[in-house]
């Protein structure tokens, strides 16, 4: 059934993916000021992290930007996916589909550069957005995120025939009621998954944020990036451990929720 | 209301996807200028500036950066596929362990891409874990330079993109009909032959999609070469940043972005085609 | 027009006049004219692409015809959007809302009507008991068997007390055992509810077993609308005979005196009344063919090629002298059937020869 080399590659690949992560977490609890050197168990780097105001500020900003961007991405990407899946052929549908998918395949530097040029052009034309910061980063991340949401929602809706919506109409629901009581609940899991994905993308992005943020909009990844350019510190280990724990808890919660809903 | 809802995505996409791309094209034809913003548009009196695009095509610095990016992206995608193809197939056939293994592949993605790069920095540097291990084992006397090399850069790229390559192969492998391999066995094929002759060919489109899914973003990668690569690894992403932020030459940065896009347009179209078929 | 001049005649429940619907120049419905009486159970029978499902969707309001009229109890239906039509549909996929319980699915339509809670509860309970869904009210569709889902879908449509219920392949997703039982239930429910049923099916046995009248469709047209027995005994066209499947279709040329001379059967088939002009095929049911010596017309010589035992009868494949094969049903009570290879003569009554229009 499964040739030996295939199985070996699986374990090698998983080991390769996990090795740095496991070591990272293990050494987060080391007292040594040199990352990845064991100096006895200590929580001092978590304490140092808690005292690093620049990083905490960036993290707080990032969380807000990510939540805002993910929410906007769900609204716009959800509408896009729904239009693409449920509004039969119309003029410009192919163009809409191509534009909706474009941020998925464009290199980040191209997307980042293009969005910065847009914000600069808008500012000189209509005076908005005045300068660049959290808002422009949020818009950039929402653009990227909405492309992912659109794809997820579209494929979710396309996998179901329209019969559920038609059944709702047939039973006397107005088109708006059919949307609210049937289509929206049908889309809900993909909207939630899309929100999480857009949130993660925003929390992980350096390139778009570098282009579209001003000095006032330093997000956590941008701050982390400038730290890492100077080398690794044990604080990063501690931060990584916290992020991994948060991710693990979120996934476990989502898994439990899905299992309970069956 | 239907009309409004149909227009909303269109307007959003026109404003935040189509218009910005058009602006990149305009910027590539503009003139660098002193001031804020540091350019003068083609309608600013000086007319269209063809020099930026010509520079990209003729100056070896830019040409090499494009070539280097393509080579690095191809290598990354190839290495990823080499690992991802067997991984995707193995996970698809892992029975009740399938979900757990898939999670094992995807979970590192949630630790954050920068954090994982940080981990590699910690592992690869001269005082790092790997050199420590090598010295402790008595294999080397002086630390081997590992960080800031082409190898480190490739390692980081493969590590970052591997999960993306596993997914398409996994998805295609779960859709395979197990009866086909059984039919091959029934007709006298050894398990190895059945795998190579029956299973693998059906996964070629998914493998091509996985390859392109890595190649396309890797070609424009900025962060990994910056953090793990040597200074001479001047991939396009880095050069765009350098021109844009360092030299404040927005037109050349835009021209370079356009050139990257032109190089990637074929892989992008191919990828979308594979996506529609799969 | 039906019933013109007679004011006392109640209008048909459903009345279609010249309904035409084209998809890219292909006519899915081509001038369909049909009446369904109140309380009638009509089956729309046809293959895939015959237009039967499109017809159902036109009545439900999910397709607009290009021309023609659709009336319900004498009132125009085409100007009414689907959610205001007093017509309900049971979808082929059942289209049960996966995120709602059985009870919520059944209550859905009543809630949209804005009925009081108490009324909704009692009508849902009534529908639950009518379709034997007791104890399943709080389950979700994915936790139901195929038969249970089918009954929930039926309950959900019937609880609205529609004047007309549309059923799209209602038994299509059930296994063979369940089909027969569910078929009987469907008939009982139809009589009990008093609604007119229009059912789409591709299964001739289902149509013949359940419906008061069968409307056979082919390429967007109605080819025959008649009670099941008539469709079965006297198929109007070659298509109907072949679609119903059981009959032998014998082709040939019409003789001057109204019989059919068939080179394939190497005989002349003479019906009770002369064949209409232009008819060049007849139907002959396998159970109407006798084995035994006969002379003259309506008899042919052949050899048994194969036999299939069917329990109460044996189906023989008889190769006739002219090369055509004739299916002959041999009843068990008539003794042992002739073995394969046996030479024999077959015959039939003039009344069994049914002319088929092209």
From TrEMBL, chain B:
Topology of this chain in the membrane: Multi-pass membrane protein
Protein name stated in the entry: Putrescine transport system permease protein
InterPro entries: MetI-like, MetI-like_sf
Main location: membrane
GO cellular component, one term: plasma membrane
GO biological process: transmembrane transport
Localization per Swiss-Prot or TrEMBL: Cell membrane
Domain ABC transmembrane type-1 residue range list: 66-271
A Pfam family annotated for this UniProt entry: BPD_transp_1
Species this chain originates from: Muricoccus pecuniae
Domain of life: Bacteria
Similarity comment text for this entry: Belongs to the binding-protein-dependent transport system permease family. CysTW subfamily.
């Amino acid at each position: 059934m499964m040739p030996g080399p295939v199985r070996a590659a699986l374990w090698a690949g998983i080991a390769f993916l996990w090795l740095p992560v496991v070591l990272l977490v293990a050494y987060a609890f080391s007292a040594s000021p040199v990352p990845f050197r064991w100096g006895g168990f200590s929580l001092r780097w978590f304490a140092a992290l808690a005292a690093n105001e620049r990083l905490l500020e960036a993290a707080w900003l990032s969380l807000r930007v990510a939540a805002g961007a993910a929410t906007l991405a769900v609204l716009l990407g959800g509408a896009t996916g729904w239009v693409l899946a449920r509004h039969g052929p119309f003029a410009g549908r192919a163009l809409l589909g191509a534009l909706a998918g474009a941020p998925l395949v464009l290199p980040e530097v191209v997307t980042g550069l293009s969005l910065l040029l847009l914000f600069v052009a808008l500012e000189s034309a209509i005076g908005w957005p005045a300068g660049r910061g959290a808002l422009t980063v949020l818009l950039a991340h929402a653009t990227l995120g909405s492309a992912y949401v659109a794809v997820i929602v579209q494929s979710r809706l396309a996998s179901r025939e329209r019969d559920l919506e038609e059944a709702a109409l047939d039973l006397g629901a107005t088109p708006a009621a059919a949307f609210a009581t049937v289509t929206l609940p049908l889309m809900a899991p993909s909207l939630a998954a899309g929100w999480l994905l857009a949130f993660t993308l925003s929390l992980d992005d350096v390139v778009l944020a570098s282009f579209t943020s001003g000095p006032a909009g330093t997000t956590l990844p941008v701050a982390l990036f400038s730290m890492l350019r100077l080398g690794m510190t044990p604080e990063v280990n501690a931060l990584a451990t916290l992020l991994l724990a948060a991710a693990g808890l979120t996934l476990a919660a989502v898994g439990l929720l899905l299992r309970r809903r069956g | 209301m239907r009309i409004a809802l149909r227009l909303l995505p269109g307007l959003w996409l026109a404003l935040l996807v189509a218009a910005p791309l058009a602006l990149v094209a305009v910027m590539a034809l503009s003139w660098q200028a002193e001031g804020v913003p540091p350019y003068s548009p083609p309608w600013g009196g000086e007319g269209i500036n063809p020099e930026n695009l010509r520079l990209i095509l003729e100056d070896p610095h830019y040409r090499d950066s494009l070539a280097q990016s393509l080579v690095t992206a191809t290598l990354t995608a190839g290495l990823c596929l080499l690992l991802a193809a067997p991984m995707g197939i193995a996970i698809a056939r892992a029975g009740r362990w399938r979900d757990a293994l898939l999670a094992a592949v995807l979970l590192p993605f949630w630790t954050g891409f920068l954090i994982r790069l940080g981990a590699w920095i910690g592992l690869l540097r001269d005082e790092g874990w790997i050199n420590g291990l090598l010295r402790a084992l008595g294999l080397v006397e002086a630390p081997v330079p590992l960080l800031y090399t082409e190898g480190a850069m490739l390692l980081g790229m493969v590590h970052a993109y591997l999960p993306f390559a596993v997914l398409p192969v996994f998805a295609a492998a779960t859709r395979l009909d197990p009866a086909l391999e059984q039919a091959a066995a029934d007709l006298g094929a050894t398990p190895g032959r059945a795998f190579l002759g029956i299973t693998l060919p059906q996964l070629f489109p998914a493998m091509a999609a996985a390859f392109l899914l890595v190649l396309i973003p890797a070609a424009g990668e900025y962060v990994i070469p910056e953090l793990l690569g040597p200074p001479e690894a001047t991939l396009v992403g880095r050069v765009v940043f350098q021109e844009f932020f360092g030299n404040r030459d927005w037109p050349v940065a835009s021209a370079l972005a356009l050139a990257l896009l032109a190089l990637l347009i074929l892989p992008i179209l191919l990828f979308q085609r594979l996506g529609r078929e799969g | 027009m039906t019933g013109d001049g007679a004011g006392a005649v109640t209008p048909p429940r459903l009345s279609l006049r010249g309904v035409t619907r084209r998809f890219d120049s292909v006519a899915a419905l081509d001038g369909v004219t049909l009446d369904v009486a109140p309380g009638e159970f009509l089956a729309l029978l046809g293959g895939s692409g015959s237009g039967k499902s499109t017809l159902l969707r036109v009545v439900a309001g999910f397709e607009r015809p290009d021309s023609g009229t659709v009336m319900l109890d004498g009132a125009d239906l085409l100007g009414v959007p689907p959610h205001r039509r007093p017509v309900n549909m049971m979808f082929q996929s059942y289209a049960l809302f996966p995120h709602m319980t059985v009870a919520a699915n059944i209550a859905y339509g009543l809630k949209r009507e804005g009925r009081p809670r108490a009324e909704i509860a009692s009508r849902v309970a009534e529908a639950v008991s009518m379709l034997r869904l007791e104890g399943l009210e709080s389950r979700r569709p994915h936790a139901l068997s195929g038969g249970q889902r089918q009954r929930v879908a039926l309950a959900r449509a019937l609880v609205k007390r529609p004047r007309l219920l549309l059923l799209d392949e209602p038994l299509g997703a059930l296994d063979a055992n369940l089909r027969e039982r569910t078929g009987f239930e469907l008939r009982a429910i139809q009589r009990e509810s008093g609604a007119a049923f229009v059912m789409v099916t591709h299964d001739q046995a289902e149509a013949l077993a359940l419906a008061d009248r069968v409307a056979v469709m082919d390429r967007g047209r109605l080819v025959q609308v008649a009670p099941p027995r008539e469709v079965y005994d006297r198929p109007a066209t070659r298509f109907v005979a072949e679609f119903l499947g059981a009959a032998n279709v014998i082709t040939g040329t019409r003789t001057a005196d109204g019989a059919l001379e068939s080179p394939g059967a190497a005989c002349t088939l003479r019906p009770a009344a002369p064949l209409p002009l232009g008819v060049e095929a007849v139907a002959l049911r396998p159970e109407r063919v006798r084995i035994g010596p006969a002379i003259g017309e309506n008899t042919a010589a052949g050899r048994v090629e194969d036999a299939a035992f069917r329990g109460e009868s044996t189906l023989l494949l008889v190769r006739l002298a002219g090369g055509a094969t004739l299916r002959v049903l041999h009843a068990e009570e008539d003794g042992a059937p002739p073995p394969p290879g046996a030479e024999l003569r077959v015959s039939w009554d003039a009344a069994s020869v049914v002319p088929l229009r092209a």
